[in-house]
Description:
By secondary structure, the chain is an alpha+beta fold. Among the domains are: 163 residues; 132 residues. It has 16 helices and 9 strands. β8 and β9 form a beta hairpin. 37% of the residues are buried. The N terminus is likely disordered.
Amino acid sequence: xxxxxxxxxxxxxxxxxxxxxxxxxxxxxxxxxxxxxxxxxxxxxxxxxxxxxxxxxxxxxxxxxxxxxxxxxxxxxxxxxxxxxxxxxxxxxxxxxxxxxxxxxxxxxxxxxxxxxxxxxxxxxxxxxxxxxxxxxxxxxxxxxxxxxxxxxxxxxxxxxxxxxxxxxxxxxxxxxxxxxxxxxxxxxxxxxxxxxxxxxxxxxxxxxxxxxxxxxxxxxxxxxxxxxxxxxxxxxxxxxxxxxxxxxxxxxxxxxxxxxxxxxxxxxxxxxxxxxxxxxxxxxxxxxxxxxxxxxxxxxxxxxxxxxxxxxxxxxxxxxxxxxxxxxxxxxxxxxxxxxxxxxxxxxxxxxxxxxxxxxxxxxxxxxxxxxxxxxxxxxxxxxxxxxxxxxxxxxxxxxxxxxxxxxxxxxxxxxxxxxxxxxxxxxxxxxxxxxxxxxxxxxxxxxxxxxxx
Length: 455
């Protein structure tokens, strides 16, 4: 396997949308902060009216009626602007999601600039209402509060421009694909750090490899099956909780499915050995540690990012969209995703307890399956498109430098063979057929060159 190449910081920043980030966290915090600011500003105006504080030189001058009119106007304008802008943005995103998939709306809602803009405008609305409410029968002039509110309006206008710019950029295909790739890199780094903190080892690096082979054989032949309690996607697995549970039960557990796999209620998801240790207590711990949900996330399901890019490619190649350039961009980022996952361990992942006893066995997606997931559907949908077909062959050749293991090279060759076979059946123009054959020859040269590289 090639040396680990971390992503650039710019790519990591693109993947800034965490799957498990609370949607309303930032807006709620912003609204609460501005509400608190309103209370403090009102108290400051009371202190000025009681001659406890000097009036700041930057404070506006006017009567109570003047400031009541100003604050009423700001309150009405802020809530109207945010309603109009967000409704228009949702229409734009709904149209864009027909090309990129429904996850674009999720990215929009979880974006920091979206949450901050929503929070500031709603916060200004509440700020104005708080100050207006304090003016009922008031004996003070809200000069400080009104001045701060006017300053917040200026800030909100700058934030609104940034929000509009962010929307215009976020619906462009290069940006969407790069964001998905950035999310994948962040997820890989998070999983890598989590595994290192948990003290896992790879099967190939484990000093007790024969012990692992015997454990797998025992789990397969003599182990007790543990069934899923509900249908859904395997979203998350808490390996440390499984280690503690199996240590208490003095058992070994093998997870049967990778994250992102859809399981049916009653379908086996794990094996436990010895079978008599599969008691109710261990089953309860397993149900808590293996989270099954209605939708996939990138928290541990690294192949989910690949599937997102494939979805965008298929939509681009559909007759309704027919956007070849979007498909080419996605193929480029698919190759980056495959390259990234190739640096992630594909061997057995081993978890041992404090005494060194084998407790949990897990296995991520083999890179050969990742290659098939990345290119199979795109290859099938693009058999009649010469530009996409030749680009697929070029991309497979570029990946051969990174995927140098024998099974990985065989998977690349199998994909290239299928690409050429399907395209030559569908494409009848001789010039296009010649271009496909030339791309295939370049792919074979790249494979031959990669085979000579040191592994």
